[in-house]
Amino acid sequence: MVKNRDGGCMCGAVRFAARNVPDRFGACHCPMCRRWTGSALLGVTIKDGDLDWQGSENIATVQSTDWAERAWCTKCGTNLYFRVTLEGEWSGGTELPIGLFDDPRGMEMSSEIYIDHKPDSFAYAGEGRTTLTRAQCVEKFGVLDSDGNGA
Ligand SMILES: [Zn+2]
Ligand SMILES: [Zn+2]
Q: What is the pTM of this model?
């Protein structure tokens, strides 16, 4: 089940239209996502070509690791996306926080990664999700965690 969803930042200076949005998303508890979001990144992957931005002059990016960048709105500071910049198996596609959608209902959290880095003070409801520890992520994503920090 995929659908089109619109969304944007807190102040409205940056908007997007996303097509073919999967209804399944993942949580990342890695130390970088934890700091970036203040909790965990709840992100859905949008394929290249399925995402159109408006107000992109208000988007700033930082190369947060050797292999990925993170973006935010320069007017209001809303975190906008995570994207693998290193060419290879994991490149292509943009990880959008589901909280950016105007209507984020009807989606299901299907995985949690870096589960062993999740703060012990909270847990998401529901069960049956795929979970990966940091070690399992390193094994799966290889070079993507060479600095040990996370995804
Ligand atoms: Zn904004
Ligand atoms: Zn992460």
A: 0.91
